[in-house]
Amino acid sequence: MSGPGRVLLACASQPVDRVPVWLMRQAGRYLPEYRQLRQHHDFLTLCETPDLAAEVTLQPMRRFDLDAAIVFADILLLVRVLGADVAYVEGSGPQVSGLPAAQDIHFPHLDRVHETLAFVGATVHQVRAQLAADKAVIGFAGAPFTVLSYLLEGGPSTDFAHTKALMNQDAPTFCRLLAGLAEMTYAYLDLQVAAGADVVQVFDSWVGALAASDFKTFVAPVVKDLIQRVRALGVPVIYFAPQTAGYLREVAGTQPDVVSVDWRISLAEARRLTGGACQGNLDPAVLRDGPRARIEREVRRVLDEWGDRPGLIFNLGHGVDRRTPVQHVHWLVEAVHAGPR
Ligand code: CP3
User: Is 272 an active-site residue?
Assistant: First the structure.
């Protein structure tokens, strides 16, 4: 296939010769060649060295016939622009430290985003130059709420107690921080688009912790404005908001080109609620566990639930589990290519 490629067509709900497929966390620890590189370089060094980050981005593209490469970076690189330290601690998730109290967090001039994260632009540029024209390069950032939750919790959380306390007790500060992060996120995505990203995905991994009404009041307006500004740069936007099946209509109301949904909702229902293009939604545990017949059956089920219409990007409902055998990914990609029943 030549031209803009299947992912861009699907983002525009245009017909495709076959459903495009890529996987969140398609680069990473389930790949032996990634683990090999990680023996010599820590995670941040991989991210900050464009030659290495481009290499890691392209590793899954060499193994599998995927339709998009997602630039190798992390949503928390942005918080270092605020002066925070981010430590990637094996087993316990990323830890964020070194920030003042919420009321005392101030935002730098946006030039600082471009200066501090210029290496991500260099990676995007290299990947775009090395990849076939019909394969999309996906840039990404964390959404303001999800990044703010890392700032306030200091790491992964189950109840988001600090984040919700700020929202409940000092809404003006909560809103000021969301707005400031949205500005930084816009600058970060602008940098990636200028470097050649064809599509961007905004990861709101933790937003499903919010009540529907709080999503609508606090988060949706900020995300909607961010998405609108990024779309004005000339690229489609995918909004990933897992665990929001209960308010998917409000999620779609932020008007991304594509809503990325998890496995807690059928694609038929997701399509009905969003009214537009969707990405998803296989449970990553199916890909991890197999066996082959179950992967094939579940891929067909997902394709069948969507039906024979444009506007689907096949993906998982969340990232590839690091215990996933490489062979399983081959089976998944083949099954997507084979299509529905
Ligand atoms: O292949 C890709 O999808 C591109 C690269 C990518 C990474 N992180 C690389 C990474 C992307 C898109 C992300 C996004 C990201 N980072 C999210 C949103 C998606 C999601 O998972 O909900 C979040 C919440 C983060 C924060 C973060 N960074 C987490 C939760 C982790 C994993 C911690 C762990 O130990 O498992 C990281 C580290 C990280 N980011 C790794 C990778 C490959 C593992 C680093 C290593 O090699 O040790």
Answer: no
CB 297 within 8 A of CB 3: no
> Which tokens sit at 159?
């109840």
pLDDT digit string (tens) for 109-126? Answer: 999 999 999 999 999 999
The Å distance, Cα 168 to ligand 1 centre, comes to 29
Ligand 1 contact, 93 CB (< 6 A): yes
pTM here is 0.97
How many degrees, rounded to 5, is the angle at CA 172 between CA 117 and CA 203? 40
Looking at the chain, list the stretches that DSSP marks H as alpha helix, in order from N- to C-terminal side. 6-11, 32-40, 43-48, 50-63, 111-116, 118-130, 144-153, 161-169, 171-194, 212-214, 220-231, 248-252, 267-274, 284-289, 292-306, 326-338
294-331: pLDDT as tens digits: 999 999 999 999 999 999 999 999 999 999 999 999 99
CA distance linking residue 295 with residue 314, whole number of Å:
13
Say which amino acid occupies 289: D
Catalytic residue at 63? no
Sequence-distant (6+) residues with CB within 8 A of 247 are: 212, 215, 216
Whether residue 150 lies in the annotated active site: yes
| The CATH number of domain 23-284, selected from 3.40.50.170, 3.20.20.140, 3.20.20.210, 1.20.120.160 | 3.20.20.210
Read off the pLDDT of residues 8-39 as tens digits, 9 standing for 90 and up.
Answer: 999 999 999 999 999 999 999 999 999 999 99
Q: Report the distance separating Cα 193 and Cα 212, nearest Å.
A: 31
